[in-house]
Amino acid sequence: MKQRFFIEQGDITTYAVDAIVNAANTTLLGGGGVDGAIHRAAGPELLAECRTLHGCKTGEAKITRGYRLPAKHVVHTPGPIWRGGHAGEEQLLENSYRNSLTVAWENGCRTVAFPSISTGVYHFPLEQAARIAVRTILDFLDEHPDMERVTMVCFDDQTHWAYDTAAREFLD
Ligand code: AR6
Predict the structure, then answer these.
(1) Which CATH superfamily is domain 2-171 in?
(2) Per the database record, which ranges form the Macro domain (predicted)?
C-alpha cells in the first residue's frame, strides 16, 4: 500500500496542504508557540474569523480558512494541559488528533499536517504524546482510505526523534 503517513522536521506554517492543525488554547484567540507562528503567518483575518467561533473545548476541533498561509485551512484544537496524567490527558490528546482529522475530512481536506500537540507549553510528556498521536493517525488512515496524506511536522530534533521512534513501534 502507498505510504500515507509521514514524519518530517520543519515549520508547519510553510506547508501547502489542505489543512494544517493549530495547537491552540480554548479561547482560539492566539498565543505563543506554534499558535503564535500560525497567526503571524496567516495575518489578522485569521484572528477575525477565530473571534466568530467563540472558543473550543479541550480535545475538540474547529476549522477556519488559511488566509495568507500556503495551507487552505487551519484546524484549531486545544490539546490538554498536562496535570500529572490522572485528569484524562491521554484521552483528551487522542480526541484532539481524531477530532482534527474528522473536521478536516468532513471539509474535504485530504492532506493534513500536525504539529506536536500539547508537548510545548502544555508539558505533555513527549514520548507518551508521540505514541498517542501515531496510533490515532494510523487508525484514522485505516478507517479512511481516501485520506491521502497526514504529516507530523516536528519543529526540533528531540520531537522528530520521539515521533520516529513511536512510528517504528507501530509500523514494524
Ligand atoms: N511549526 C511546527 N511546530 C512548531 C512551530 C512551527 N512553526 N513552532 C513551535 N512548534 P506549543 P502546546 C512546536 O507550546 O504545548 C500556545 O500559547 C513546539 O516546538 O506551541 O499545545 C497556545 O495558544 C512544540 O513541539 O503548543 C496554547 O496556549 C509543539 O509545536 C499553548 O501554547 C507544540 O508546542 C498550547 O501549548
Answers:
(1) Leucine Aminopeptidase, subunit E, domain 1 (3.40.220.10)
(2) 1-171
